Each structure stands twice: as C-alpha cells, then as structure tokens.
Amino acid sequence: MELNSQPPPLVWVVMGSDSDLPVMAAALQTLEQFEVPYAVSIASAHRCTDYVLDLAKAASSRGVRVIIAGAGLAAHLPGVIAAATTLPVIGVPLASGPLVGQDALYAIVQMPPGIPVATVGIAAAQNAALLAVRILGSSDAEVAVKLQQYAAQLQAGVLAKNHKLQELGYKKYLEGMPSK
Ligand code: RP5
C-alpha cells in the first residue's frame, strides 16, 4: 500500500524504522477494522530526509487526510512531516532505546508554536489510529456511525465485567483472571 495506491489512502502511516513495525501494526489493524484505506511507509527523518519530505509534500494531493507518524529515540519524524504539510499529524512515541520512549515522547510532544503534532501515549498506536478515524468521522457520517458502534462495544464490555463482579464477588473474579 503505497501513497499512490488505489483506492487513495485517507490515512498515511509512516514509521522511522522496520523495528517500529511490531508496535505500529496496531494502527494498521485498527484502520482495517474501520475499513479506512491507508498507505504505510518506512521513512526516517534522519536517514532519508529528502524522501520523507517528498512523501509529506505529496500526501495531501494523493488523498491523504490524516498522517500517523511513529518514531523512537530522538523522534523527529512527526515534527518534520508536520513542517512539510498542513495535514493533521498524529505522533506515536516509541520505546526504542534506554530511555524507553520518554525521549521520543518529549521530542514529539514539545513542538514549537505554529507546527502542531497531536501526540498519543508511548506505543499507543491503536489510539493514534482511533484519533485518525475520529478526525475522518467529523466529516463522514458513515465513519461516525462506526465509531459510535465501537464505543457501544467498549461500554458493553465494561458493563459485562461489572455484572460478573457483582455476581461472583472479587475473590472468585480474581481466580478466573489470567495471571500477568
Ligand atoms: C528511530 O530510531 C526509529 O523510529 C526507531 O524507533 C529507532 C531505531 O531505529 P533502528 O536502529 O532500529 O532502525 O529513528
């Protein structure tokens, strides 16, 4: 799924390295769950800067409406992309090194005034995709209905757990829980 693929991608998911893919796959799975067409790329702000800029500048004209960018360490990818496009950019800090994602979190969240990046939690690729779907859903009624259904499922899951807790009591509930 390249940026120029058909149907045109609404979301472009980009990550700094293939070592980011196991975590970023959650974003791809979530977009598939909502049937949102996406493109996915590996492109590093430091190791192939011109390529990143070319893709970021082309994204809007290829139909992309939201960009999700995941990176670890000195994570400049989301910010560099946000500097090269006016599309909304969601940054995913990844726990790639000895600082376990805090370096990436600070690098992504502390953007200078004028160039925003919406930052999700460390490794929160699923939430990044859900935020992207919400942005699309703000102008697409079909997507908004899917989000409402998703929220209803979440609610039903919690209510079912509470019902079980009331029935069993906490000790039996705990016995039935998988150990972590
Ligand atoms: C960042 O450096 C990438 O986003 C990745 O999280 C980290 C390490 O990259 P590799 O050395 O595994 O390619 O740019």
Write the layout of secondary structure elements.
Layout: E1 11-15, H1 21-33, E2 38-42, H2 49-59, E3 66-72, H3 77-84, E4 89-94, H4 102-109, E5 118-119, H5 125-137, H6 141-168, H7 170-175
Parallel strand pairs: 1-2, 1-3, 3-4, 4-5
Helix pairs in contact: 1-5, 2-3, 5-6
Bound molecules: 5-O-phosphono-beta-D-ribofuranose (RP5).
5-O-phosphono-beta-D-ribofuranose binds at residues 15-17, 19-20, 44, 71-73, 94, 96.
What does this 3D model show about the protein?
- It is a single chain.
- With 180 residues, this protein is of the alpha/beta class.
- It has 7 helices and 5 strands, in the order βαβαβαβαβααα.
- Helix 1 runs parallel beside helix 5 and helix 5 crosses helix 6.
- It is globular, with a radius of gyration of 18 Å.
- The mean pLDDT is 97.
- It binds 5-O-phosphono-beta-D-ribofuranose.
- 5-O-phosphono-beta-D-ribofuranose binds next to strand 3.
